[in-house]
Amino acid sequence: MTTKAETGNVERVIFDGLAEVGAEPDDISREAEFEALDVDSLDLVELAQIVEEEFGVRLEGDDLKGLTTVGQVIDLVVKKAG
Amino acid sequence: MTRRVVITGTGAVTPLGVGAETLLDGWIAGRCGIADGEGSCDEFEPTDHLSRKEARRADRFTQLGIVAGDEAIAAAGLDSEGIDHDRIGCVIGTGIGGLTSLEEQVGVLRERGPDAVSPLSVPLMMGNAAAAAVAMRHGIHGQTYGIVSACAAGAHAIGAAARMIQAGDADAVVCGGAEATLTPIAIAAFGSMAATSPTGISRPFDARRDGFVMGEGAGVLVLEEAEAAEERGAEVLGELIGYAATSDAHHLTAPDPSGRAAARAVTLALADAGIQPSEIDYVNAHGTSTPLNDRSETEALKLALGEDAHRVPVSSTKSAIGHLLGAAGAVEAIATLGALRREIAPPTLGYGEPDEGLDLDYVPNDARPLATASGNGGARHIGVSNSFGFGGHNAVLCIAS
């Protein structure tokens, strides 16, 4: 059973997921850039797995290309869920 | 003129604690790091040394290797500016690699399917992960790779590092071994082949020995070309004066009972060092506590050392920490160097009942001052460290203080 992908939920899951993969919790925000959080492509795959498990939304490799901030990913997940 | 290889730093994480000196202090004092039939590094807490992110991107064997590497590199002062890191290599062996991670991800695959398998799986479990992590952490840009030769991997890594320096491919090499396989599959697998001790006791060379006790840990050394080390004013802890490796070509796991190929490795290592058996002060045995190894190793030492086999003190670090598999050769090289520097023959713990034919001086239970071999001028002590791996791989290091 997956959770409904509303902005608030998605933000919470992604913030938690980023902390889980090792980003500094205090640095995580919608505006934070992945590079500044030291989040690389391997971390993003893990994040995509967490998102899929939670919301049933599948992020393919190309989906994340060009996205640099946490907020962009949150918006993408909400959009794909809709 | 052959380039000489000196040792300028050591680091270890073992069941006796964190630190190379901790290992020596504990072993010489007769402490045993084995509990409940395992040599686990209970005092090692990864996040004491690594950030949470660094820790989750490294299998336990790599974590152990990183921490031993940090200690060795700090001791050698190899992180200093002005040292050309293009001329530093990194060779770290392992018997198996990231088995904890592999087991975990096999569970994920079975329970949740292929899409849930972690993208970190491969970098966690690959056998070169410890070498890669140490090189990345310290900006090492020379030759970097892992070596996989079961329980000889740590010694092979040191030998390969020495050759790299002698060939002129590097001026310094961070080298050693790391292993962390106290996992259900490894415990079951070594158990099912009857390699490990059902009683959980490591008592090498004793008549009651019934298998090895599995341990985990890491040992890392910094080897340097002697002149380069001298030029930068590094403290020289000892010298790797000889190395040789041979192969039994006998059986998947059992050593050749004649000890012939193992003896040849010892003989070749002494020839590489340009020394005679009469110059050896101490032998750090592979001494696994298995019925087969301890007998064939005793035979090998008799073949290689002749009359001197009965004079030289021979002891097994595995009596104090268990068998660290791919880390064993490196940890034991560090233990050998420490014994020579402290002029102490550390003991074979747990020794009580002599076995027929196993009649060398195994330094039973208590450390004692290291006598100087008759053929040795006395200016330095010389030790030999044996490592033999499943597959019949024999690697022997000859170290001088």
Q: What is the overall pLDDT average of chain A?
A: 92
Sequence of secondary-structure elements of chain A: HHHH
The succession of helices and strands of chain B, N to C, reads: EEHHHHEHHHEHEHEHEHEHEHHEEEE
**What structural category arises from helix and sheet content of chain A?**
mainly alpha
Query: Would you identify the regions of chain B where 5 or more consecutive residues have pLDDT less than 50?
Result: none
Low-confidence spans of chain A: pLDDT under 50, at least 5 residues? none
Shape of chain B: globular
Give the tally of β-strands of chain B: 13
Main sheet summary of chain A = none
User: Structural class from helices and strands of chain B?
Assistant: alpha/beta
Helix content of chain A: 40-55%
Radius of gyration of chain A: 11 Å
Strand content of chain A: under 5%
**Total strand segments of chain A:** 0
Instruction: Determine the number of helices of chain B (DSSP H or I, runs of at least 4 residues).
Output: 14
Biggest interface reads: A-B, 10 and 11 residues
* Mean pLDDT figure of chain B: 96
Radius of gyration of chain B: 20 Å
Describe the main β-sheet of chain B briefly.
11 strands, mixed
Distance between the termini of chain B: 22 Å
- Give the oligomeric state: heterodimer
